[in-house]
Amino acid sequence: MTSKQMKDMDEALLEQPAIRPALKDREGYGPSLLTLMGFAFLTFNSGMAVYRSNGDLSAISFVGFSYLDLVLLFYCLRRYEKTPPESPLREHLKMAVWLLTTMLTAAFSYKVAAIMPFPVQVLVWAMAIATILGGFYAFFLHKEGAKA
């Protein structure tokens, strides 16, 4: 290959957009097979956890809360992806996503910390708080292109 051909190829590559357009949306179609399988797996495991709880109301509540939180989280994320960037609804959905992830983090941290010795409990809660605050910073305070 000659240097002129290489130069022409380089220029052609530079002219292509850096961000490729998204694939056609599946508007009008239902959820994908992989999504349905994921929700079936989540539902089955949640049902088995409730069945094995032997009537323990706190365990059933935890499983029910976690299941509902995850379903709402996936719903809000899907709506967020479909909402135009200039829409005010996008900010509300972002807040809902952060709140749902915060609640899920707190619920799992509570369950994990309950079976750990005190020093590990402190570590679990410190990691949960760092995760929650990091998510808040990433979602609401960090501006793209700004230097840290």
From TrEMBL:
Task: Tell me if Transmembrane helix is a UniProt keyword of this record.
Answer: yes
Q: What keywords would UniProt list here?
A: Membrane, Transmembrane, Transmembrane helix
- Top-level division of the source organism's lineage: Eukaryota
InterPro entries for this protein: DUF6490
Transmembrane segments annotated in the record for this chain: 33-51, 57-77, 97-116, 122-141
Answer whether the UniProt record assigns the keyword Iron to this protein.
no
Q: What is the name of the protein in this document?
A: Uncharacterized protein
| Upper taxonomic lineage | Eukaryota, Viridiplantae, Streptophyta, Embryophyta, Tracheophyta
